[in-house]
């Protein structure tokens, strides 16, 4: 199946979807957004990596920043922080306007300590899958660069991860088509969620709306 361009979802939404399906729906279907310290720090960090159309060459590597990517089969579009084209005349593919052949490796920037959680991993794997479709190549590995250690972690792109990415986007398209926002399901993630004031996860902890409002009134 191929999606029409007007039905594309944002690639970066896969990290929200992994974190909490309701959070993804609140942001991407209901257009709700609330910033907390974590999201603001993340945006500042990303703005340093993104520099549209910036291309740099270091020895045998061409580095692009802010490269736009898409996939008809996943029905998504987005931006890669960094894509590295590493000269490899044996295993690489040709790139328009460049001599030789190159292997292709996306690098996702994240602030904080290395955690390589599923949401970070699926995001960079999704970027690799878009690049494969656009450049007709195979990508075996990608990287996540963590700001606190200033080190990159290698992510091997397995069939299992590819399936998880494809299944996640399929489910996101189904939710989006029905404009369906899942109900509150309280978890530890709620404490760090930028939307907790909008979502009111406390309602999912067997508290009635009346009791919730009453407790808020008593707090003030
Ligand atoms: S507060 Fe909890 S349930 Fe609500 S969107 Fe955030 S993580 Fe999901």
Automatic annotation (TrEMBL):
Residues 12-200 form the DUF83 domain. Pfam families: Cas_Cas4. Keywords: Antiviral defense, Exonuclease, Hydrolase, Iron, Iron-sulfur, Manganese, Metal-binding, Nuclease. Mg(2+) or Mn(2+) required for ssDNA cleavage activity. InterPro entries: Cas4_exonuclease, CRISPR-assoc_prot_Cas4, Dna2/Cas4_DUF83, PDDEXK-like_dom_sf. Its EC number is 3.1.12.1. Its cofactor is [4Fe-4S] cluster; Mg(2+); Mn(2+); iron-sulfur cluster. Transmembrane segments: none annotated. CRISPR (clustered regularly interspaced short palindromic repeat) is an adaptive immune system that provides protection against mobile genetic elements (viruses, transposable elements and conjugative plasmids). CRISPR clusters contain sequences complementary to antecedent mobile elements and target invading nucleic acids. CRISPR clusters are transcribed and processed into CRISPR RNA (crRNA). Belongs to the CRISPR-associated exonuclease Cas4 family. This is CRISPR-associated exonuclease Cas4. It comes from Catenibacterium faecis.
